[in-house]
Amino acid sequence: MYKETEFPESLKDVIIQDQLDGAKFPQLLKGEIHLWTASLALSAEKIDALRSLLSPEEQKRASFYNFERKQQSYIITQAVQRVLIAAYLDIEPADVILIASKKGKPFLINELSLFFNNSNSHEICVYAFSRDAEVGIDIEKIRELPDIDQLIEKNLTSREKAYFLKNSDHKLSLFFQFWTFKESYLKAIGEGMRLTPENLEFSLDDGNITLRSVKYGFEATDWQFLGFTREGGYTGTLTYQTRDTVIREMN
Ligand SMILES: CC(C)(COP(=O)(O)OP(=O)(O)OC[C@H]1O[C@@H](n2cnc3c(N)ncnc32)[C@H](O)[C@@H]1OP(=O)(O)O)[C@@H](O)C(=O)NCCC(=O)NCCS
Q: Which of 81, 98, 148, 162 holds its CA 20 to 30 A away from the CA of 74?
């Protein structure tokens, strides 16, 4: 059994949590995935406090972002991830050691069996944690895209495009949904741009998301997909491995 720890003070008012009692940090059991949501719209004071939790390398990377908004979202995203990992492992945030794979997927040196992934868009960041297997998560704010038709043409397969034609009234929200199906899968398997979106084919049937095919024989594992939304017009997808996993939304 994993130890129960106090809810980290530094995450108060950052993690969007209206249902947790906030007193104890939840234990992550095998067979579960925890989903967290953090706000990226924080005061300068709060962002400064979070910046101090970053490793020296992360602080250096933060200083390279020219746009203040990008810098702030990087600081919050990384600091919250570090504090959540530390709470799961019952260690200090400064003792969390992360490195990235060649294609950029971060993993933990401290404990190879804690899997996690994050994604941010506009004003929120979402996180997934598992003790069983790799996870991938992606979130997007649904927003107007002037080049929507070109994006559909470039990123979807013929069968996906046919589905979009039949559902053209919802093409913008559908596009973001399919985008997050593909990105969350690419993030679960740790691929970056190498396996481009038109090489993956998904279907959406009555809310059920299915990966129909993947070209080039990447990852035949039977992945599962959960679509979710967040207040403010966000759509997201979690990709995970085991069918009967219990997914706990921490908000
Ligand atoms: C790596 C990639 C998946 C990240 O996606 P993104 O939308 O830019 O950013 P997100 O906020 O969702 O995720 C960023 C986080 O994912 C993680 N990440 C980075 N590379 C990763 C990889 N190869 N695999 C898994 N996770 C990765 C990191 O924690 C990163 O956070 P950081 O930049 O603060 O360190 C993306 O850059 C990419 O290569 N996309 C290609 C696929 C594509 O074109 N999809 C279109 C679908 S229609």
A: 148
Q: Are residues 234 and 187 in the same domain?
A: yes
pLDDT (tens digit, 9 = 90+) per residue, 104-116? 999 999 988 999 9
**Which residue is associated with the tokens 């005061």?**
43
Q: Please report, for the domain that includes residue 163, its CATH number.
A: 3.90.470.20
Q: Are 32 and 247 in contact (CB under 8 A)?
A: yes
Pocket of ligand 1 (CB under 6 A): 74, 77-78, 103-106, 117-120, 138, 155, 179, 182-183, 186-187, 190, 192-193, 197
Q: Are 188 and 129 within one domain?
A: no
For 181-191, the pLDDT digits (tens) are 999 999 999 98
pLDDT of 194 higher than 80: no
Mean pLDDT, rounded, for 135-159: 96
Angle at 124 between CA 132 and CA 245, to 5 degrees: 20
DSSP characters over 42-89: --HHHHHHHHTTS-HHHHHHHHH--SHHHHHHHHHHHHHHHHHHHHHH
CA–centroid distance, 118 to ligand 1, in Å, is 9
Q: Six-digit token pair at 178?
A: 């399919």
Domain final residue, candidates 133, 148, 180:
133
- Best residue among 134, 183, 194, 239 to mutate for probing ligand 1, ranked by most atoms within 8 Å of CB: 183
pTM above 0.90, yes or no: yes
Same domain, yes or no, for 184 and 125? no
